[in-house]
Write a structure and sequence with these properties.
This protein has helices at about 5-15, 15-40, 45-55, 70-90, 95-125, 130-140, 145-155, 160-185, 195-230, 235-255, 260-270, 275-300, 305-310, 310-335, 340-350, 355-365, 370-395, 395-405, 440-450, 460-470, 480-485, 505-515, 530-535, 545-560, 570-579, and strands at about 430-435, 455-460, 475, 495-500, 520-525, 540-545. The chain is elongated, with a radius of gyration of 28 Å. Helix 15 packs antiparallel against helix 18 (about 395-405) and helix 16 (about 355-365) packs antiparallel against helix 17. The protein has a 6-stranded parallel sheet, with helices on both faces. The chain is built from 25 helices and 6 strands. The chain is mainly alpha-helical and about 575 residues long. Mean pLDDT is about 80; it is low at about 410-420. It starts with a helix and ends with a helix. It has 2 domains: about 70-405, Na+/H+ antiporter like fold, CATH 1.20.1530; about 425-579, NAD(P)-binding Rossmann-like Domain (Rossmann fold, 3-Layer(aba) Sandwich).
């Protein structure tokens, strides 16, 4: 008779390890995250803890994999690729104009001071020069994912500290991609001098980015136009994923990096009319694989080392938070960011990040670090990333306490470069018009005459391009996507009007709108009485097409007889009441 263990082992053997891993990861992540949400902790911390539980308590047995299995590492790499793709999309040259001073000066100072200090310490401890440089850059990098998600959770995306943090995060992400290019030369993996190898790598990277831009301008953009005209959501999403994977693969095939390829793919579409639609389509995938990436980080953590070397880990984590936070705060003050936003931004950048781990792994392909060094950096990264959301939540009262003690100056005006420009993501008290047919066009023109800011959501690419040329805030997006509504600033809007008579789509979108803005005015169109009832049950103010047409026709017909004893308005009122 088979034992339970033998039965389970034979059952697991019949299941794909990839599917078994994905199932285990998702189930454990949901359970752990539900507990953490009750304590108002970051979901990213839940993902890290899920990986630690799976990797250190025998749960990987159910998948037939071990900690170092390539399947796990490949999952993590997909997460990084999609993260870099979304960062490329969000990297707007127009936005960079407002952040260049913080990004270039602030980011350069932060990376130089932090990386230089850590590199000198590593050299003094006996590390080779190449390893010291890699460690310096790895520790200087912060977690873009944790910082930006924490700003979103706090509702502080437009806080000057958030924009300052975004500027430095952009600089870090670009720098690490460039560093990937020069690493082979740093470790002497090519022919010729280090300077010549670095130069060749930089030229290759530049040519690749230029080629990606040309491909996007003359190849991919027309392709997206053709796909958009099909009005097929599935085909559009498939095209986006294919674009990301294809350009990333090209970067890897040219010995650059998948991360650089994915970033280039994002840049290709960052200034196109499709960028917001692509973001709304890709975000669920990015969140899924980013969760898998953080879980894979947790899988690599060895709890036995935490137990045996806990004091050194705590000291190392504390030093990272203090040194990085202190340097970031000094840099923000240097570029004239006020005190309170500087404290918040410094807290967001105080940890090491996901690319610190990727960088160490990449360097290990040339000359592996000692296992204890890798584990130390890995665990400190996990600890510091987990602490950042808590630091950010407490930055406000800490800033006020410093002001009362006279350490910080009282709140003062914010530099113009740190204030958001009045573009799509900054517009407030506006009207969101979904659909730009005859009804949407008339409503938009009428509201603008009344001095009301409007934002159009439209899925006809030709219409979107025309509106952009006219300077009208517009998104190429589907109003039934929660991410698209967030991009339109639904929580800040006064009203939303669904100007198309597609009631099923309106019924899908209305709960998403209410969830984000319970007090917003919602207008919708319906053709038939049954549709009117459905929309009214959702609290929508309905424009009934048949009724309005009937009113207009009755009034016109009665007026044509020009009888003195008949009042057309009265006839219309009586007729509609009877109906």
């Amino acid at each position: 008779m088979l034992s339970i263990g033998s039965f389970l082992a034979s059952s697991v053997a019949n299941i794909s390890p990839l599917f078994a891993l994905l199932t285990l990861v998702l189930v454990v992540a949901v359970l752990v995250s539900l507990v953490l949400v009750k304590f108002k902790q970051s979901l990213l911390l839940g993902y890290l803890l899920s990986g630690i539980l799976i990797g250190n308590f025998g749960l990987l047995w159910f998948t037939g994999l071990d900690k170092g299995d390539p399947v796990i590492l490949n999952f993590a790499e997909i997460g990084v690729v999609l993260l870099m793709f979304t960062l490329g999309i969000e990297f707007s040259l127009s936005e960079f104009k407002h952040l260049w001073r913080v990004a270039l000066i602030g980011g350069g100072l932060q990376m130089t001071l932090t990386g230089g200090m850590v590199g000198l310490i590593a050299t003094a401890m006996g590390f080779p020069v190449a390893d010291s440089i890699v460690l310096g850059v790895a520790v200087a990098l912060s977690s873009t994912a944790v910082a930006m998600k924490s700003f979103q959770d706090l509702g502080q995306q437009n806080n000057p500290g958030g924009r300052a943090s975004l500027g430095i995060a952009l600089f870090q992400d670009i720098l690490v991609i460039v560093f990937f290019l020069v690493m082979p030369a740093l470790y002497g993996q090519g022919e010729g001098s280090v300077a010549s190898q670095v130069g060749i790598a930089m030229v290759k990277g530049g040519l690749f980015l230029a080629g990606a831009w040309l491909l996007g301008r003359y190849g991919l953009t027309p392709l997206l136009h053709a796909v958009a005209r099909t009005r097929s959501r599935e085909l559009f999403t498939l095209t986006v994923i294919g674009l990301c994977a294809g350009v990333a693969f090209a970067g890897g095939a040219l010995d650059l990096s998948l991360a650089l390829g994915a970033f280039a793919a994002g840049l290709v579409v960052s200034e196109s009319i499709y960028s917001h639609r692509i973001l709304s389509d890709i975000l669920p995938f990015k969140d899924l694989f980013l969760a898998i990436f953080f879980i894979s980080v947790g899988l690599l953590i060895d709890l036995s080392m935490v137990a045996s070397d806990g004091v050194r880990i705590l000291i190392g984590s504390a030093l990272i938070l203090l040194i990085k936070g202190g340097i970031a705060f000094a840099v923000f003050k240097w570029v004239k960011v006020p005190g309170r936003p500087s404290i918040l931004a410094a807290a967001s950048l105080a940890s090491t990040g996901e690319f610190s781990i990727v960088l160490i792994g990449k360097a290990g392909g040339y000359r592996p670090f000692d296992q204890s060094v890798e584990q130390m950096l890995l665990i400190c990264t996990a600890v510091t990333m987990a602490i950042v959301p808590t630091l950010m939540r407490n930055a406000g009262w800490f800033s006020k306490w410093l002001e009362r003690k006279g350490v910080l100056k009282m709140h003062k005006l914010i530099p113009e470069s740190m204030t958001p420009t009045k573009v799509i993501k900054e517009i407030t008290d506006h009207a969101i018009i979904c659909g730009y047919g005859p009804v949407g066009r008339s409503l938009n023109e009428a509201l603008k005459r009344c001095g009301v800011d409007t934002l159009v959501m439209e899925q006809n690419s030709e219409t979107v391009r025309s509106l952009k040329r006219e300077g009208q805030p517009v998104l190429f997006a589907d109003a039934t996507h929660a991410e698209a509504l967030d991009l339109a600033g639904i929580e800040r809007a006064r009203l939303v009007a669904f100007t198309f008579p597609a009631v099923n789509s309106t019924c899908v979108a209305v709960p998403l709108v209410r969830e984000r803005n319970s007090g917003i005015y919602i207008f919708g169109r319906a053709k038939y009485p049954g549709e009117v009832t459905r929309l009214r049950e959702l609290g929508v103010q309905v424009i009934h097409d048949e009724r309005e047409s009937a009113v207009a026709m009755v009034k016109a017909a009665v007026s044509s007889y020009q009888r003195a004893d008949i009042d057309p308005e009265e006839v219309v009122s009586d007729t509609m009441e009877e109906r």
